[in-house]
Every structure is written in C-alpha cells, then in structure tokens.
Specification:
about 110 residues, mainly alpha, two-stranded parallel sheet, 2 strands, about 10% strand, globular
C-alpha cells in the first residue's frame, strides 16, 4: 500500500475507527526493503512458482525499477494517529524472522 498521500493515511484511520467502534484493535504493518533486494527476490524460485506474472522477469524488473523512481511506497515517518503501527525493514530478514517479529509485537498488545 502506498502511504505517500494524506488520503492513504485517512483511509487507514477509517479502518482503525471501524475496529475500535467494536472495541477491537488493528495493527498496521509496513514492510520495507531495498531496491536491490526487491530485484533479487523478484526472480527467486519460490516467487516464480507462486506468482505467474513475475515469470516475465525482464518486464517485472522494469516495473520494479520504474515504480521505485516514480512512486513512494513507504512512509517517511510513522502516521501519528495510528495506534498500533509497525514498520519493518526486511531487507536483511527472512520471512520467518519477520513473521516472528510481528507475532511478538501482537503478543505484547
């Protein structure tokens, strides 16, 4: 999700309000990784097996590079009105490590 615009954060605040109206919490998790790592992961065997559109590697890589220069996918700072917001740079972390980090965060709530 792109959180570069005010409207994007406003949308997340509406989701949060819907949960809180029912005395429930919601956690927003933002994952961030370097462009180099995104390109490396893009052509991994696991990804190519599960994401057929990524099998056109040259097209997929071009889209990654183009959007990296034309879009802001990650927040510069955490949205202040989201009560449970976790931003993780997963460049150097495995999926299992990230999942554990998120689980640990949830268990502390």
């Amino acid at each position: 999700m792109i959180l570069a615009k005010f409207d994007d954060v406003t949308y997340l605040e509406k989701i949060q309000a819907a949960f809180e109206a029912h005395q429930q919490s919601v956690v927003f998790v933002e994952l961030e990784t370097s462009l180099e790592e995104r390109l490396r992961r893009n052509c991994s065997e696991e990804r190519l097996i599960h994401k057929p559109l990524k099998r056109h590697v040259s097209i997929s890589e071009a889209e990654i590079v183009e959007t990296a220069t034309s879009c802001q996918f990650n927040t510069i700072q955490s949205p202040k009105d989201l009560h449970h917001y976790l931003k993780i740079d997963n460049t150097e972390r495995s999926a299992e490590e990230v999942a554990q980090w998120i689980t640990d965060y949830l268990l502390k709530l």
